Amino acid sequence: MHLDWHEFSEEIAATLVGFHALGAAMNLGAAWRGLRGGGGARFRAAAWLALAALFAMFAAWAGRQEPPGLPNSIKTAIDAVLGPVTLFFGSLATLTVLFLGREFFVRPWVAWSALNAAMLFLGLSLADPHFAQIVLKPDNLPIVAMIFLLGFFTWLGAAQAVENDRRRREGQSPREKDFAEKTLVWPDLVYIELICMVALTTLLIVWSLLVRAPLEPPANPAVTPNPSKAPWYFVGLQEMLVFFDPAIAGVVLPSLIILGLALIPFLDFKTEGSGYYSIAGRRFGYVVFMFGFLQLWILLIVVGTFFRGPNWSFFGLYEPRDPHKMPLLENVKLAELFWTSWLGLPVPQPADDSAGLARFAAIVWREIAGMVVLFAYFGAIPFALARTLMKRHLARMGKARFTAMILLLMMMLVLPLKMLLRWTCHLSYVVSMPEYYFNF
Amino acid sequence: MRTSTETFYNIQRLHAIFAVAALAMLAVTVWMVAADHRREWKRYQRTFRDQIEPEADEAAARLASENPNLDAPSRSERAAPGPSRFTQWLLGLPLIDALARPLAIEQIWLPDLTIDYHFCQVARFDRCTTCHQGITKGWPEEIGGRLPHPYRPHPRLDLYCGPHSPHPVSEFGCTICHDGQGSATEFRFASHAPNDPRQRAEWRQSHGWFWNHDWDLPMRPKRFLQSNCLKCHHEVSELEPSSRFPEPPAGKLLAGYHLVRRLGCFGCHELNGFDESGRRIGPDLRLEPNVHEVALRLLADPKLEPTARGLAQRVIARPDDVAARRQLADALKGSPRPESRVLAGMLATENPRPGTMRKVGPSLRDVAERLDAAAIVSRIADPAAFRPATRMPRMFGMHEHLEGLGLESARRFEPIEIRAMAEYLLAASQPIASLEAAAEGPSAERGKRWFRLQGCLACHQHRDFPESQATQGPDLSRLAVMFQGPKAAAWLTSWIRDPARHSPRTSMPGLLLNMPSGFTSQPKGQQSAGEAGSPRVEDAAADIAAYLLSSKDGELPALPPLVESDLDELALVYLRTTFSPDVAARHLREGIPASMAAEIPPDAAELLGPMTPADRLDKKLRYVGRRSIRKRGCFGCHDVPGMEDAAGIGPALSGWGRKPQSQLAFEQVAEFLDQRQGMAEGGENDDSSFYREAVREGRREGFVWQKLRAPRSFDFRKASGKPYNEHLLMGRFSLTEAEREAIITFVLGLVAEPPKPSYVFHPAEPTEAIVEGRKVLDHYGCAQCHTLELERWTIEYDPTQFPSPPPMPEHDFILPKISEDERAASLKVDRRGLARVELVGMPQVDGQGKLEETEDDDGDPRYVFTLWEPAVIAGKVWPVGGAGVLVAPKQIVAKRPPRGGDFARLLYPVALAEAKAAGSTAAGSEAWGWVPPPLVHEGRMVRPAWLYDYLLAPRVIRPAAVLQMPNFALSPAEARKLVGFFAAAAGAEFPYDSDEGGRGKGRVAIGPKEIERMDRAMRLVTDRTTYCAKCHLVGDFSPGGEIRTTLAPNLQDVAARIRPEFLRRWLASPKSVLPYTAMPVNFPPDQRLGQDIFPGSSVEQLDAVMELLLNYDEYVRRRVSIRQWIEAAKKP
Questions:
Q1: What mean pLDDT do residues B497-525 have?
Q2: pLDDT digits (tens, 9 = 90+) for B537-580
Q3: What is the rounded distance in angstroms from the CA atom of residue B714 to the CA atom of residue A128?
Q4: Cβ A187–B32 below 8 Å, yes or no?
Q5: Reported ipTM
Q6: Do residue A216 and residue B7 have CB atoms under 8 angstroms apart?
Q7: What is d(CA B1081, CA A278) in angstroms, rounded to the nearest whole number?
Q8: Per DSSP, what are the bridge partners of residue B288?
Q9: What is the C-alpha to C-alpha distance for residues B112 and B114, in angstroms, rounded to an integer?
Q10: Model confidence pTM above 0.80
Q11: Which residues contact B624 (CB under 8 A, 6 or more apart)?
């Protein structure tokens, strides 16, 4: 579909004016708050004022149907850089930096700056028709909102955890202990519930007046939509299908996720840092959970929603969604790599007339390299860890708990490892036994 | 309860937040109510109710009071007893308007006109009238037509929406014709479709319009509105203008339909009118089964048995003869030749609904008889170079989309393909012996005269005669350039004499060239005609051939040199589709072993047997040529020997109009348009910008547009990546922008979505006869010569000033019956005091064929209009056959040209001049009798049985005519359809039951009294001085004479030919039937003539002559005594 630039500018104008006006208003508010403070706050208030002016200027441009956007060179560069690998490692690196520098990043003005940066990026990008097409799709609006909400709540939790950690260091009790001795139902709770109700109703009415219900064409059993996307909360699962056999990605992994979440209270029985926000007290648990949630779940949803296009191909944010863009399918199985590339032999196949055990043995022989890898991964590595790095864990948790925990952990790590193997070595399956409906 | 004073939060602050939230909610609630109150359709309904409707009603009433000629429109029902203004105001207030319903969504429920929601038929709800409130209002055009949208009434209430139209809105709704989302109540969601970029921009401004890609059936843009007629009107020709709807109901669609028929799109693309279950889904334009080609192929086998040969010839002459076809298939079953068995299998294929269309190109089965390699090559390479208006598409040399490897291979292989195709055609050509030429040498000078007089120009153009613009047949101006072979002249002569002999399915008729013509005057020294019936010595066909081949302008380009390495490469490309690369190379080197004959595809047969250095090149050329012809589908238009088994190469188009747009392979066309064909071509309002946008947005109309314009451009940036063999193949036709749009309109209408049968158009019997007959008329171009509908002039006149018709004595039964209402209607005047009348007939023309102008008493110019139907003007009846109506140029409001007869009008001055040169003193109007006659009354005049025989085997009726009806080699079914058409078109009785049992109407039992009366009548008939025999041939008698322009039809055939009820009228007042006839009034009502021959009143005379003519056979039988013959024979 070719978009007319001029018509697009007309269509997007109202949205962009609203968006930039919102940015201006927010920064005006922040500046007003800052001006009432002193010292550094005043200095920062000037910065917010400048930002508010910038947003106001953008709003004015958008109103004249010349929406400010990123130059094409930058857009092309972003599209060129953003791939599955850079996204994965980029987000991992960002999370690591945020984690390590959390004392700095939880400061409100830093967070406010980050929010401004995100809004500027979004506002400037919305002037691109291809970006706008994806981000402003009525179905995707909740996901965009989710990203902001997620950022806010992650920041909120981290900020409180940092605060509690500081208090702990200074020998004070956590923040929650001070404030949450009792909560008054009347008037406090009932009143704020009422206010929330009114505000949310208002929000819903405004939403329904501004955005049409996302109705698509009448369903056609003969034509599947391309791409065919799961509901937003399952897009992450759908993304896993790229890397795993449907049985694994669709059944085993989701079951294990639920099982693992259910097991947390039994595996994590540490009382320290429990009942309030804290990082220092439960570093391992925090890191594992945040990695699993943000990196392995949210990131996959974001990739599936914003980066996957027709034929589930990977598209840049500013790239036209051309259904003719076909990924190069050159995936190999480990057995092929092992026998053909490394040993220079043909891949052994079970004889056509073989059956029963002999056939099974032949197939296992074919997949012998994968079998060894799997055994090493799920057997040898946990064993080695128990002896070395995680000695203390084993001692504290006991064998049964440790085994369950380490297997779940290894299973969780399968996902990023498999992704990396696919991106780097084009490896499709470590073990592939379609004869028995088993691929891993 | 006392409230606790202890709080955690700052309650004052919470109060403030609550207040803000509550106010915000109030505000958005008001916004919500306002948004509902201001919904688009409510605004439209309010405006219509309060402003538009009352004003329009008032204006219409004012107009009606000033102008009695117009029917006063009934006042709108809603306006009359409505609620008071206050109630209306109250009920219309915001929020209240949602409870009470002063304004409401109006919808039409159409359970039988379903929408296909993909395998699920859903009832249609059309809410269009919610906004289009005035759609059925019968306000006069000058009021309704000026209203803004959406209040404007439908522009064709006679055809649509109106309760008395064929498509009342309550039964048909809107979206069945217009498409769009009928259930929408907002402009932008109804999928309105702009007609051009200007409208698009306007709508975007005023309505926030956008293309809703989520609705599969956007409204048809105005330019394609007629497409949807095809949903129910499957025969298409029923959409021609008719007496009920003289304004063309679907002109563009019909134009597209005729173009598709003319260009033969169905040769490549199947246009099947039936689905698998045999249900009718749309226009059915399929090629007829090619059994005659199979039979022709069989005849080429010298070893064919004589019985089979006879059967094959029967099949060729009558392909619809099922019995002969089956017998032939049976006879061939045991044939030792595998090819014959394959052909037998094709003959044995039964098709319950065979196609009916003939291939549009000339047969190439005997092409070597007329063309040589250079001619074929130049014709294929660039058809338009030889004949700019050719129907043949350009297949080669379209390289504008190519680059790199694709361009290189096209440049190398295309000349090879062209050359190879020519060589194959020449090698496969099956000679058909030409007819013997006449003794006397041909003369180009005579030929030119024959060419003009014998009707060639009815179908063909020739630059010597620029006045003819016929396109039924090809332009013959430059035939000589092509026809250079040694046998070409003989072939052309033979072809003109009997085209069917060379191409059994040609629509070119066999001209009755050797029949005597009334115009015997030859160039000096060649006077050779004898009495009627004797053949001429010289051969007119040879003369015409000599004329056509006499002026040769231009030379064919020489054959380009053949690069054998490229030929080999192309042959390998083809062979590799069947064989592995090394086997293919071996076959090309050594030939395909004869033992493999049964396993290889038919085209590879050209390479069978060992290759010798002598035949190597020929064999390779023939193979490549045959493969190329098969690949490019030449057999879709031409009869190509060896391709009898081939099927059209293009995708089927039935249902294309609903092909999901996501499945259209636009490839890189949009880029091609931007880069190669420049945007400079069209500005904002140019038509092409509409289509360019359609291409960019991936819509169907853009796809067809580009396919017709640059069919290969879909290979842009793709050709280099695929083998030469897989390049796109569609050829480019020379079309104007309007023609292209007509074809697009037709193709978009092929939606294969017929509604319930009750909605599909099933014509009543007479209409069906007209629809069916029209197809035959169109195919053979009957209307080139014959006028099928007369000219119509609408004039405005002042009844007080208009002269009365001169009195004319007439029998009572001739006088037209006019009702008092009609008389009164002719006196009704409008505001300017003018009345209107429509005149049907022919305006008089002068010797040059120009409109004749006379002057009235005041010296003002006047045209003379000869009436063919009685007219009532100013309360007076103007009968047919009386004086012409004098019409001032400024009185003419509208002229509707006649349908058909272009050639007759072309020939009229020519015939007149020829007759004058031959010494005739006939009056101008009589010359109409020498040219092909109008057939408007044909159905009422002739007996169906006679017409049927005549159509199958035409013979001379009017010896005076310049040219005679040619023999079209109609099938009996076609002849039957034509007979039905003429009867239905003239409103005559059909089937004509009085023909039953061979005892026709008008026959009487002949007793002595009748014999005596007939004898007296016979004396009238045979009287040479005043009565019939003066002009008419009677039996073996001919009035003869040097100048035969007065010769009239033989009276012995009248009984079989003329319907009795018509004959009486004709005898009594010939001019009241045929205004131009030269036949005098023999039995005037007010005089008693010929009392010495037949004493009695004129009516008695008239009836006696009629009785005689109708019983001529019986009378003659009574009067001829065989005994006399025997007695005479006895005498020595």
A1: 68
A2: 567 888 899 999 988 888 888 888 899 999 999 999 999 988 98
A3: 28
A4: no
A5: 0.85
A6: no
A7: 123
A8: none
A9: 6
A10: yes
A11: B416, B417, B420, B567, B570, B571, B574
